[in-house]
């Protein structure tokens, strides 16, 4: 199953011989149960089951099975809209300083299908709350690119949950630190693990942020859709970016998808040479541009739905406010 495949990929890090990986994954090998459970969230959740002996703990990492549907359709939408044959060489040209290259050169404009499919996807999740039903099958030609993206995204999400376990977030009292701080910390550990796995698997450094970028853009789209449906105010990546730049406040339960994405890019840039960082930036920039292009067309539709009285369903949120800790409490409804 998809979840256990991610665990196997992570367990192979023992083979790197690096002490931090050997220690953590030797210890965790038989202590982590990965399973699917209907949580209503398009994200992972790491738990220390109630009553667990703190001296000899076993952990759960749970994902709603619908998460895999979401990431499956999302990866197909993005892969359908990207000219991935052009992407490689354009990113390389950008990496060596060619400023004339634009991320929009990799977008397959004029193809209405990805837009229609994304519209259906967001409507099913946020407006109807049903998850994906009756979505159209995708073209064969995008399969391997989309598959690579979603495999990276699934790895990153599971690695993020391992990040909570490794950091000790599940044992910490919830009041000891702001939840958003734990989220950003788990992202960094999760990214280090993801990067090391992709390195072992021979994925070139500049493409390693693709899956995480896809996941964060998916969360951003859910946030934007929910916001517009709930408030009737136009909301876009620029609004989310402004919130990200102003930084999360200690009172915030969760950082925005864009804060999380920006932190990862920063982390990447501090560990890789400038040309690889530029190529990675190009690819992440493409996901952002594409999301903007989609939203320019889709955003107004959700404002119309708001005017007609449609409100977001309280399921299928992209984030988890307090996912760590022993108390699995209801995530409070978004106030804004
Ligand atoms: Zn988390």
Could you explain the architecture of this structure?
This protein has helices spanning 2-11, 19-28, 65-81, 84-95, 113-128, 143-167, 179-200, 210-231, 237-246, 257-269, 274-307; strands spanning 32-36, 44-47, 59-63. It is mainly alpha-helical. It has one domain. A 3-stranded mixed β-sheet has the order 1-3-2. Helix 1 (2-11) crosses helix 6, helix 6 (143-167) crosses helix 8 (210-231) and helix 9 (237-246) packs across helix 10. The longest helix is centred in the last third of the chain and has 34 residues, at 274-307. Zinc ion (ZN) binds next to helix 6 and helix 7.
Task: Provide the fold topology.
Layout: H1 2-11, H2 19-28, E1 32-36, E2 44-47, E3 59-63, H3 65-81, H4 84-95, H5 113-128, H6 143-167, H7 179-200, H8 210-231, H9 237-246, H10 257-269, H11 274-307
Parallel strand pairs: 1-3
Antiparallel strand pairs: 2-3
Helix pairs in contact: 1-6, 3-5, 3-6, 4-11, 5-8, 6-7, 6-8, 7-10, 8-10, 8-11, 9-10
The structure holds zinc ion (ZN).
Total helical segments: 11
Distance between the termini: 37 Å
As laid out across the biggest beta sheet, the strand order is 1-3-2
Average residue-wise pLDDT:
85
Give the SSE order as H and E letters. HHEEEHHHHHHHHH
């Amino acid at each position: 199953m998809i979840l256990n495949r991610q665990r196997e990929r992570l367990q192979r890090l023992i083979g790197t011989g690096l002490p931090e990986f050997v220690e953590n994954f030797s210890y965790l090998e038989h202590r982590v149960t990965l399973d699917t459970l209907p949580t209503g969230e398009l994200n992972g959740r790491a738990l220390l089951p109630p009553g667990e002996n703190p001296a000899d703990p076993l952990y759960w990492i749970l994902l709603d099975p619908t998460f895999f549907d979401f990431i499956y359709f999302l990866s197909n939408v993005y892969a359908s809209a990207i000219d991935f044959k052009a992407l490689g060489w354009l990113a390389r040209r950008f990496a060596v300083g060619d400023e004339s290259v634009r991320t929009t050169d990799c977008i397959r404009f004029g193809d209405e299908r990805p837009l229609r499919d994304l519209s259906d996807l967001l409507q099913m999740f946020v407006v109807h709350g049903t998850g994906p039903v009756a979505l159209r099958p995708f073209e064969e030609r995008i399969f391997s690119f989309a598959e690579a993206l979603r495999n990276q995204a699934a790895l990153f999400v599971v690695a993020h949950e391992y990040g909570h376990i490794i950091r000790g977030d599940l044992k910490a009292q919830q009041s000891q630190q702001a939840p958003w701080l734990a989220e950003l910390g788990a992202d960094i550990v999760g990214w280090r693990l993801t990067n090391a796995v992709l390195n072992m698997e021979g994925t070139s450094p500049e493409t390693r942020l693709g899956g995480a970028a896809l996941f964060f853009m998916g969360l951003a789209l859910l946030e934007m859709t929910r916001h517009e449906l709930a408030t009737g105010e136009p909301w876009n990546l620029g609004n989310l970016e402004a919130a990200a730049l102003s930084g999360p406040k200690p009172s915030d339960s969760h950082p925005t998808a864009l804060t999380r994405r920006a932190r990862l890019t920063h982390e990447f840039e501090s560990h890789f040479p400038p040309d690889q960082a530029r190529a990675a930036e190009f690819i992440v920039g493409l996901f952002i541009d594409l999301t903007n292009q989609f939203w320019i067309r889709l955003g107004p539709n959700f404002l119309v739905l708001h005017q007609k009285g449609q409100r977001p369903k309280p399921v299928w949120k992209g984030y988890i406010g307090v996912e760590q800790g022993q108390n699995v409490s209801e995530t409070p409804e978004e106030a804004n």
